[in-house]
Design goal:
This protein has helices at about 10-20, 25-35, 40-50, 55-60, 65-80, 100-110, and strands spanning about 55, 80-85, 90-95. By secondary structure, the protein is an alpha+beta fold. α4 (about 55-60) crosses α5.
Length: about 110
């Protein structure tokens, strides 16, 4: 901690220091919330909350370019938000956890919708 004088009492300072996650965890959290920082990704996550789909179906349903969908799915997969399952030549994508949808729903609720 710096040599600045704080108005917070020591108990509160200690509580903050104990509660604050390490930077490595905070960086992972930034990556996680990055999933929700793009309209296309949110649309894809919303669709995948309903059912698993392949790239072609996602592109058709959301009226998006297949290349765009593939690029965004790559980002979502690297963030751990979606998983891929191959069935023959087709890859189906789904949310990796119901918690992804719960975060979305909490955001919608927070906004008052």
């Amino acid at each position: 901690m710096s040599n600045k004088i704080l108005l917070l009492d020591k108990r509160i300072q200690n509580k903050i220091n104990d509660y604050m996650p390490p930077d490595s965890v905070l960086e992972e959290l930034v990556g996680f919330f990055n999933v929700f920082s793009d309209l296309t990704r949110i649309r894809i996550v919303s669709a995948l909350a309903i059912t698993e789909m392949c790239v072609n179906d996602i592109a058709a349903m959301l009226r998006l370019n297949q290349t765009t969908v593939s690029h965004q799915l790559k980002i979502l997969k690297s963030a751990g938000a979606v998983r891929a399952k191959r069935q023959g030549k087709i890859i189906f994508y789904s949310l990796s956890s119901e918690q992804i949808n719960e975060v979305m729903l909490n955001g919608v609720e927070y906004l008052g919708y």
